[in-house]
Amino acid sequence: MTMHTLKWYKENFGVSPVALGLPFVEKKNPYYSSGSPMKLWEEEDVLPFKSDVGIAKHQVRKAAGTKAYQTRKTNLIKWFESVKSEDPRVHEITHRLWEIGTQIRELHALKAICRGDGYDDYENEHCTLCCERTDHQNRLRDERAVLFQELIIVCGKDKRTIQLARKYCREKA
Question: pLDDT (tens digit, 9 = 90+) per residue, 18-52?
Fold first, then answer.
């Protein structure tokens, strides 16, 4: 008894068991414990409906999606690099955001070392030093929020677009 997900059937059989109205089994999500259960269909139930045309259509759609993703990524990188080169303030802000992120991660790591393995009361701080580090992290987060608001105004794009462009530029490097 071999069972697969909807995505697997669309990719390998070219059909949707949901559209066919086939019965499914729900299993605990192995990837996200708090996620909804996975729906699985038996391969023998779906096999009679296998479609070579459906598989070909799926491959075309998948290729189109990949191409669209690459185009969007390329365009965002070009846009963000041009904005950074045109306005030195954008470069200053992005550099400071990178520094803030690094500092926040370092403070978090120091707090984890200070607490040790057995510490599990994250409602309260471990010691005075941890309290100071948390206060410093909060000040950095506030600064980051202000800088992002300025970046949104300067770039004329929403936060999500800017974050995505920054991510793609980091991946490119």
Answer: 999 999 999 998 888 888 999 999 999 999 999 99
Q: Half-sphere exposure (CA, 13 Å, Cβ side) for 4? A: 17
75 pLDDT more than 70? yes
**Whole-angstrom Cα distance, residue 147 to residue 100?**
10
pTM of the model: 0.65
What's the burial of 56, exposed, middle or buried (CB within 10 Å: 0-12/13-18/19+)?
exposed
Q: Flag whether 65 is in a domain.
A: no
Report whether 24 contacts 38 (CB < 8 A): no
Residue with the bigger pLDDT between 101 and 113: it is: 101
Provide the number of structural domains found in the chain: 2
Residues 30 and 106 in one domain: no
**Stretch (H or E) spanning 38:** strand 38-42
In whole angstroms, give the CA distance from residue 151 to residue 92: 10
Amino acid at 131: C
